[in-house]
Amino acid sequence: MTKKVYTVFFLIxxxxxLPISTLAAENEDDSEDAAEVPDxxxxxxxxNTYPNATEEQEVVEPSDLTQALMEDLDIPxxxxxxxxxxxxxxxxxxxxxxxxxxxxxxxxWPLHYESEETNTNWEYQSINTxxxxxxxxxxxxxxxxxxxxxxxxxxxxxxxxxxxxxxKKMILLQAKDKMDLPLAYTxxxxxxxxxxxxxxxxxxxxxxLKTYAPAVNExxxxxxxxxxxxxxxNKKKLVVQNxxxxxxxxxxxxxxxxxxxxxLK
Length: 265
What we know:
The chain is α+β, with helices and mostly antiparallel strands. 25% of the residues lie in helices and 43% in strands. It has two domains: 1-36; 41-264, no CATH class. The chain contains four helices and ten strands; from the N terminus they run αβααββββαβββββ. Strands 1, 2, 5, 8, 9 and 10 form a six-stranded antiparallel sheet that branches. A two-stranded antiparallel ribbon has the order 3-7. Strands 4-6 form a two-stranded antiparallel sheet. Residues 1-24 form the signal peptide.
């Protein structure tokens, strides 16, 4: 193949690959835009008159033995409470227990949560409205956000489910891994919380500044299973039986964040 043919060949390949590369870049940009906090959403962690406690979730690391037991399973175990229990459990069959067999039932547990969809509602709950009437004024005025009453915003699971506290922990852990936001199941905005940003109200106008608490909606599936210790001679292993899955969702408020909607009439 001549040098000229090689050049034509590579030019054709470049043109064919160009739309794919451009599309990939566009999709990447869309993904980044979706994760960005909008301009009308503000962090009030410094201004909030109510100090919210950070809802830190305990990350439980499996012990060497627990890790070895879980590696033989086809189903991943991510429930921190179950991992903690396995870490604290001591079952040591006798080295001379030849021919011994047994199954020790340790309960039906939510094993892991698999996220399928994560969305943010920046106007999850209305928490405040400030108003300024400048209809009869002779010059422009400015208005600012001031929280009139203390407001508590609560999240929750969207469906009844067994072992709900364990499920809530697993969902929150996954959501925090995906979203760079301070998520929790509750947040409070204290009375008299203020923000310095100002909104201009022209003459002959009536203004409303509505304030909302944002929240993340998480949807996915929880896998449940009956967990056993299987003892065989001087060996032991984990066995999971009667596995089922259940769809679940949760609302997770964003702590110390508010979104504003400014309206003129």
